[in-house]
């Protein structure tokens, strides 16, 4: 099915088809009744086998030629004939007690026409005479019981035929209505079923414009959205798999050196001729390598922990400016000893935010330690805050080695390390953990550059 349809709802389709089939049924019933009344019924009554005339009978159809009906014929049939003009005045009377010139009142004429007698039959017909004037031919007949019973029998037959034809027309229209609803539904559901069936081996989008119903189009759009999500999930899974491979490679490289050192110092301690000073030195170096391994395991644990969205934060309302000054104070001496120049421009006015102090301390610590591990003296470092119209901003800047342009888009990915980082045995998880913690707080971090500072980490907290 490749035809593009004008979309409609299921209720619109039902309403349109219902009105259409009701109109068709009404037209067919009217046509059938017209044929019965004007063609079949006169023909049926004229057949001697179906309607024998005991003692004769004049039919309404014979009134068209009333001039040829003689008074003698009327006497034989126990009938009378009157012709009335437009004013209901009798202008011709045959075998009737009503003479020419008599004028009926409307009430009198209605009483005559509506009389209900088993042995009495009145037929009327409106005609045009030769002068073009309207006349009414009134035929009154007396019937015997056999004729009346025959009338009733044929009337029941006619009613039964009429009801049968009407029911037949209704059944045909109902079947056509059901088919008109079922066919587009089947076509729409077939497209959806085929689309779902192809999913395991073909995840291409399906064009919803080929469907007539808006409901099924919406379902197909949801299916296309699901395909996009599946592709996204597959891409993320491939990305995680690549990250896992990178993690294994990184851990193999990073763990190899301290493990080799541990093994070497342990073998040296097994020698009996070591002096106490040598033993103390080797034990100190073993402790240092164990600390390195412990740091790698902690970073890996943090990376796994923050990948789960349900990781709970212990939020508390605190002054972020005061908190940041406290963190900077703890690192101020360390930066001085390394030969770094640290400039702090934190607002004196308090600014309160809801945040997890333990994890937020990890954010700032990772960023400051990143500066220490990737730069050499003399490096200028600036920590500043600013309250802007829509967010609270923290910037940590340095004019050190900087980050290569090709690495800036990937610096927050887990396990990503530039060539410079690779030589210094870094896990590649620090900035990833920073981003994860900030995102859980609803904040965002970005890497930028300024003329005076090659590396600028900007953190933006949305205002409460």
Tags for this entry?
single chain, 464 residues, alpha+beta, five-stranded mixed β-sheet, four-stranded antiparallel β-sheet, 11 helices
Largest sheet properties: 5 strands, mixed
How many angstroms separate the termini? Answer: 54 Å
Q: Cα-atom Rg, whole angstroms?
A: 52 Å
Summarize the amount of helix as a percent range: 40-55%
Verbal overview:
The chain has eleven helices and eleven strands. It is rod-shaped and about 160 Å long. α1 (10-46) packs antiparallel against α4 (145-198), α5 runs antiparallel to α6 (276-306) and α6 (276-306) packs parallel to α11 (430-440). With 464 residues, the protein is of the alpha+beta class. It is 53% helix and 16% strand. A five-stranded mixed sheet has the order 6-8-9-11-10, covered by helices on one side.
Brief account:
53% of the residues lie in helices and 16% in strands. Residues 50-55 and 419-425 have low confidence and may be disordered.
List the topology elements.
Layout: H1 10-46, H2 71-76, E1 79-84, E2 90-94, H3 106-113, E3 120-128, E4 134-142, H4 145-198, H5 214-269, H6 276-306, E5 315-319, H7 320-337, E6 341-345, E7 352-356, H8 357-374, E8 380-387, E9 391-398, H9 405-408, H10 419-422, H11 430-440, E10 444-448, E11 455-462
Parallel strand pairs: 6-8
Antiparallel strand pairs: 1-2, 1-4, 3-4, 5-7, 8-9, 9-11, 10-11
Helix pairs in contact: 1-4, 4-5, 5-6, 6-11, 7-8, 8-11
């Amino acid at each position: 099915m490749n035809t593009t349809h004008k979309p409609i709802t299921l209720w619109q389709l039902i309403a349109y088809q219902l009105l259409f089939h009701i109109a068709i049924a009404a037209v067919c019933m009217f046509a059938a009744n017209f044929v019965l009344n004007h063609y079949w019924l006169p023909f049926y009554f004229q057949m001697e086998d179906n309607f024998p005339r005991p003692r004769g009978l004049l039919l309404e159809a014979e009134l068209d030629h009333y001039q040829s009906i003689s008074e003698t014929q009327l006497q034989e049939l126990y009938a009378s004939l009157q012709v009335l003009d437009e004013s209901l005045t009798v202008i011709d009377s045959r075998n009737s007690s009503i003479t020419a010139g008599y004028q009926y009142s409307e009430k009198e004429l209605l009483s005559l026409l509506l009389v209900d007698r088993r042995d009495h039959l009145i037929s009327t017909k409106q005609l045009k005479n030769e002068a073009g004037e309207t006349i009414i031919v009134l035929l009154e007949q007396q019937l015997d019981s056999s004729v009346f019973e025959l009338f009733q029998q044929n009337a029941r037959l006619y009613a039964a035929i009429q009801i049968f034809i009407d029911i037949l027309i209704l059944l045909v229209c109902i079947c056509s209505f059901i088919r008109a609803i079922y066919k587009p539904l089947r076509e729409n559901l077939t497209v959806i079923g085929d689309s779902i069936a192809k999913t395991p081996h073909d995840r291409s989008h399906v064009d919803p414009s080929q469907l007539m119903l808006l409901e099924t189009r919406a379902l197909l759009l949801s299916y296309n959205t699901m395909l996009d999500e599946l592709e996204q999930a597959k891409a993320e899974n491939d990305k995680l798999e690549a990250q896992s491979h990178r993690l294994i490679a990184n851990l193999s490289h990073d763990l190899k050196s301290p493990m080799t050192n541990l093994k070497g110092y342990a073998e040296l301690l097994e020698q009996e001729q070591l002096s106490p000073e040598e033993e103390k030195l080797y034990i100190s170096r073993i402790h240092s390598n164990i600390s390195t391994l412990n740091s790698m395991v902690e970073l890996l644990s943090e990376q796994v922990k923050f990948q789960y969205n349900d990781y709970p934060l212990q939020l508390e309302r605190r002054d972020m400016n005061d908190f940041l000054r406290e963190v900077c104070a703890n690192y101020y001496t360390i930066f001085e000893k390394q030969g770094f120049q640290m400039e702090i421009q934190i607002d004196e006015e308090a600014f309160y935010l809801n945040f997890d102090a333990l994890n937020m301390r990890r954010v700032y610590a990772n960023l400051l330690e990143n500066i220490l591990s990737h730069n050499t003296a003399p490096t200028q470092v600036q920590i500043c805050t600013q309250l802007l119209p829509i967010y609270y901003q923290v910037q940590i800047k340095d004019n050190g080695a900087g980050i290569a342009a090709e690495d800036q888009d990937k610096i927050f990915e887990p396990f990503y390390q530039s060539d410079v980082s690779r030589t210094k045995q870094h896990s590649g998880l620090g900035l990833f953990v920073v981003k994860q913690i900030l995102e859980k707080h609803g904040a965002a971090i970005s890497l930028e550059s300024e003329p005076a500072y090659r590396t600028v980490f900007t953190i933006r907290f949305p205002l409460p």
